[in-house]
């Protein structure tokens, strides 16, 4: 296991980058703690796989260093970093049995036969493949092969880090939850440093201790699932985390008041004068329909999704979403919306602004 330090790290695929826009991975300075589980979350093209490949040694950064504990591995080969990596598509030895595939990393390192047998049995149980241990991998389905890849990545207990690059893409949906739970259990039991790349917020939020949200080559927030939901540090985090995502509405801020088209919204905190693009962000869960309180809103449609209702509405010309209880009656008298002042975030140029006690 290792603490991973990203020191002044940046990468461009161009031979002579001249400006920030030429970098696929913009400057990163972070320390990821030994033994924690991290998820790199973001849309396609945001830089998460680039960063994972730099950590694994498959890619040399244009600038900066990678340290495992206090050892600089920036120019070390992948084999020298003592990591295990599981890729998006399964990589298995078709001519070997499942048992032989799982045992291969341990045999390569000269582990004893008794330890290999015990460890293979443990991992096979974890990935649900005990009954096919002596079958050749060639005839197995894609999701079964990916489970072998996952198992082979997890079979070693002495690695510095386990890296997963969208490993559940080819897994049947009903198996995804089970495998995520098993990965979480493995982390709890053995304490490996784990880094898991995904574009799926459910995977990230259920797997990780800390979620690393990436956007346009930057890390825009590192936090617990609760941090990302309650206090998105960037409007992208608010939009990307949650279903539906955070409502972002242009506003004018004066002290402990926000104004949307001249209509006043109370804030819990006070703010000094803000410049540039100023907006408020409110989660749909913290907006409430009312017949008498709040500001005018026009309901366009109501979607019943089982556990709750999603109200699609127009608020001073802006599309917003409101989450209502499953049993809430949304009649024609519900023409106003109220926001919880404690849950209204303020953003300037997309970044969260921390106000002071009002």
UniProtKB/TrEMBL annotation:
<dbReference type="InterPro" id="IPR012340">
    <property type="entry name" value="NA-bd_OB-fold"/>
</dbReference>
<keyword id="KW-0547">Nucleotide-binding</keyword>
<dbReference type="GO" id="GO:0016887">
    <property type="term" value="F:ATP hydrolysis activity"/>
</dbReference>
<dbReference type="Pfam" id="PF17912">
    <property type="entry name" value="OB_MalK"/>
</dbReference>
<dbReference type="InterPro" id="IPR003439">
    <property type="entry name" value="ABC_transporter-like_ATP-bd"/>
</dbReference>
<comment type="similarity">
    <text>Belongs to the ABC transporter superfamily.</text>
</comment>
<keyword id="KW-0472">Membrane</keyword>
<dbReference type="InterPro" id="IPR047641">
    <property type="entry name" value="ABC_transpr_MalK/UgpC-like"/>
</dbReference>
<keyword id="KW-1003">Cell membrane</keyword>
<dbReference type="InterPro" id="IPR040582">
    <property type="entry name" value="OB_MalK-like"/>
</dbReference>
<dbReference type="GO" id="GO:0055052">
    <property type="term" value="C:ATP-binding cassette (ABC) transporter complex, substrate-binding subunit-containing"/>
</dbReference>
<dbReference type="InterPro" id="IPR015853">
    <property type="entry name" value="ABC_transpr_FbpC"/>
</dbReference>
<keyword id="KW-0067">ATP-binding</keyword>
<protein>
    <submittedName>
        <fullName>Carbohydrate ABC transporter ATP-binding protein (CUT1 family)</fullName>
    </submittedName>
</protein>
<dbReference type="Pfam" id="PF00005">
    <property type="entry name" value="ABC_tran"/>
</dbReference>
<dbReference type="InterPro" id="IPR027417">
    <property type="entry name" value="P-loop_NTPase"/>
</dbReference>
<dbReference type="InterPro" id="IPR003593">
    <property type="entry name" value="AAA+_ATPase"/>
</dbReference>
<dbReference type="InterPro" id="IPR008995">
    <property type="entry name" value="Mo/tungstate-bd_C_term_dom"/>
</dbReference>
<dbReference type="GO" id="GO:0015408">
    <property type="term" value="F:ABC-type ferric iron transporter activity"/>
</dbReference>
<keyword id="KW-0813">Transport</keyword>
<dbReference type="GO" id="GO:0005524">
    <property type="term" value="F:ATP binding"/>
</dbReference>
<feature type="domain" description="ABC transporter">
    <location>
        <begin position="4"/>
        <end position="241"/>
    </location>
</feature>
């Amino acid at each position: 296991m290792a603490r991973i330090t990203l020191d002044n790290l940046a990468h461009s695929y161009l031979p002579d980058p001249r400006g920030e826009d030429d970098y696929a991975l913009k400057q990163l300075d972070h320390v990821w703690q030994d033994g924690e589980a991290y998820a790199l979350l973001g849309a396609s093209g945001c830089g998460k796989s680039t960063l994972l490949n730099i950590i694994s040694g498959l890619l040399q950064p244009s600038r900066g260093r990678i340290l495992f504990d206090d050892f600089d591995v920036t120019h070390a080969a992948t084999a020298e970093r003592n990591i295990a990596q599981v890729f998006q598509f399964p990589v298995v030895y078709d001519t070997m049995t499942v048992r032989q595939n799982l045992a291969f990393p341990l045999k390569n390192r000269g582990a004893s036969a008794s330890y290999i047998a015990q460890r293979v049995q443990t991992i096979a149980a974890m990935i649900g493949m005990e009954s096919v241990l002596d079958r050749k991998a060639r005839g197995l389905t894609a999701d079964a092969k990916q489970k072998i890849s996952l198992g082979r990545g997890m079979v070693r207990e002495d690695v510095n880090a386990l890296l997963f690059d969208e490993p559940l893409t080819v897994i049947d949906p009903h198996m995804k939850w089970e495998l995520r739970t098993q990965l979480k259990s493995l982390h709890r039991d053995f304490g490996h440093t784990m880094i898991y790349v995904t574009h799926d917020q459910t995977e990230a939020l259920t797997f990780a201790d800390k979620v690393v949200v990436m956007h346009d080559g930057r890390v825009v927030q590192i936090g617990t699932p609760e941090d990302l939901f309650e206090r998105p540090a960037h409007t992208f985090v608010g939009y990307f985390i949650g279903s539906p995502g955070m409502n972002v509405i242009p506003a004018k801020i004066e002290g402990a008041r926000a104004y949307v088209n001249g209509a006043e919204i109370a804030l819990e905190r006070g703010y000094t004068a803000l410049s540039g693009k100023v907006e408020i962000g409110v989660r749909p869960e913290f907006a409430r329909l009312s017949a008498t309180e709040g500001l005018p809103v026009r309901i366009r449609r109501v979607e019943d999704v089982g556990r709750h209702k999603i109200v699609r509405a127009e608020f001073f010309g802006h599309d917003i979403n409101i989450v209502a209880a499953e049993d809430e009656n949304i009649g024609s008298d519900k023409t106003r919306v109220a926001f919880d002042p404690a849950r209204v975030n303020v953003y300037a140029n997309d970044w969260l602004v921390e106000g002071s006690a009002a």
